[in-house]
Amino acid sequence: MKTRLSLSIALALGLAMGGAQADRLRMEVLAAPCAGCHGTDGASAGTSMPTIGGLPKEYFIGVMQKFRDGRRVSTIMGRIARGYSDEEIARMAEYFSTKPWKPHKAKLDPKLVAKGKALHEKYCANCHLAGGRYAEATLPRLGGQWPDYLHTQLVECKLEDRPVPQPNLMELRLGKLSDEDLEALAEFYASQH
Amino acid sequence: MSTFTRRRFILAMGGAGAAFGLSRPVPAGVKKKARVVVVGGGYGGAIAAKYIRKLDPHIEVTLIEKNRQFVSCPLSNEVLGGERDIASLTFGYEGLKGHGVKVVHDEVVGIDADKHRVRTRGGGTYAYDRLVVSPGIDFRWEAIGGYGPEVAERLPHAWKAGPQTLLLRKQITALRDGDNVLIVAPPNPFRCPPGPYERAAQIAHYLKAHKPRSKVIILDPKDKFSKQGLFTAGWKKFYGDRIQWIGGFAGGKVESVDPKKMTVQAEVETFKGGVINVIPPQKAGPIAHKAGLADESGWCPVDQKTFESLRHADIHVIGDACIAGKMPKSGYAANSQGKVCAVAVVAALNGEPVPEPSYINTCYSLIAPSYGISVAAVYRLQDGRIVPVKGAGGLSPAEAPEHVRRMEAMNARSWFRNITSDMFT
Ligand SMILES: Cc1cc2nc3c(=O)[nH]c(=O)nc-3n(C[C@H](O)[C@H](O)[C@H](O)COP(=O)(O)OP(=O)(O)OC[C@H]3O[C@@H](n4cnc5c(N)ncnc54)[C@H](O)[C@@H]3O)c2cc1C
Fold first, then answer.
1. pLDDT by residue (tens digit) across A63-78?
2. Rounded to two decimals, what is the model's pTM?
3. What ipTM was assigned to the predicted interfaces of this complex?
4. A167 and A80 in one domain?
5. Chain B interface disruption, residue of A75, A85, A148, most B CBs within 10 A
6. Measured by CB atoms within 10 angstroms of the end CB, which terminus of chain A is less buried, N or C?
7. Domain boundaries, position B336
């Protein structure tokens, strides 16, 4: 009898104190499987898989919904995103937005970086502030992202019938750029840790 | 048997402990350091060990792995094709030590489920509160006449990466142009359902450049296989009729092999090979059988919410060795199961409810160096069984522009970087 009593007190206490931990486990069990492709805590080990740890919540939710309904083209994320409800996407956005942004470790070509910097300042800097390091609301972070990923996304941005969400102005400006320019821009943003 | 008695006892007692799946409730106040032992440091075990520490650094985690280095099966088919070095598939355990995991290199030879202890070949004994077992596979050597561990030194399986992979690669490079490579594919269920068919492509990639008169013939007891449409189209595109698949309905089931004559006796015909790769039928790793964790199917039944064994309390089985509903036996599945299991173990040891699990699998296959395809799924628990979420997952599209296949090939290699960094850093 005595043991039963102390056991239930222990459990009650455990539950009360363990609320935060229980919530953490609920988040982890949902979001941790993504790490098989995006790295532990969403810090990608490269090269074509993006880092998602540290992305703004609002952007994350928007992107996942666009993957899900096909407004953003993808090789695989559409198939993955369709497995999650709005509520779950919101929880994952919370989880990943609280992780630190860990920049990539790719080797970069300084010449390309310099070329990309000039292009960035001319065409992109009025939105992607602080060399692309600035992120807020629906604006994703580009600074420190993997260059291969950025390059593949920019190439996709320019293809017709492959929808990638982008403001009109971005589309207009990308329209003026060559594939070499896109490579240089990807290299530049990658350098902005 | 005694475990069942104990379980029934706990259930009969009712009470909160049983309700939370806590078979050994820790008394209040005494916050003794809980001990977890993990057997096997591969795709499942390394992840379970790391994530238990990540979620609760108060838990003492000991990982027992028989090898000093881990050689990955995923991407080992690229070694056969000559596109990759085996060093790029080889990992050490320093990263896990960095997470506070105690790493012991020894082989577990016995599990005493009642006393909660494991015993190693080196003579060590390790006590646990919870045990996680991720031993991978063993072969049913007896299923193919004339085959066995010694014959595998002549007719390699290369289904555990390492020396076997290098042996098969050596034989393929020494093949006489015009002689054929035979692949004997296994029946379901087996490790990596798309693996034999990716292997055929990788070998054909090498043959096309170096032994243009040689072919790959797959002898298969099955009538269909994973990503069949995508593989068949990709094979044809790159390798013409260089890859021939003989399914079960066409007599593809292999009955015996003759290593002297270098022949394979299938149901209808006898085939001669310059190289013969036998991928035997499979079952859970030896320790799972020794410890009574496997059932008559050869695999380990578990509670699919927590991966706790249905045969012994406080022991969890993950990865290829376990029966995980609709999930295939893959590295990604083992990774995902390792995390669900880690969460369940941490919850149990802290007396918390186990949250509703969620799982992912993706398998990339490389048909040519710049041509990748994939299959993916997101899974949930339904009536105690792991099932794919309807409407999600599926295959790469049958028709896709070249650059999409190229991106998937890049993603296959990026996946490998990420899943191995998840395990070893
Ligand atoms: C050619 C090939 C290609 C593949 N490609 C892919 C792919 O592209 N994607 C994918 O997702 N999966 C792939 N797989 C499947 C993948 O390799 C397995 O599903 C995965 O390794 C299963 O993980 P596991 O933890 O169950 O076993 P393993 O990763 O094999 O780990 C088991 C570990 O336990 C150790 N061990 C066993 N018994 C003991 C003991 N008694 N004491 C101590 N240590 C012990 C072993 O040494 C080993 O390190 C492939 C497999 C093959 C063969």
1. 999 999 999 999 999 9
2. 0.93
3. 0.91
4. no
5. A75
6. N
7. 3-66+106-138+282-424
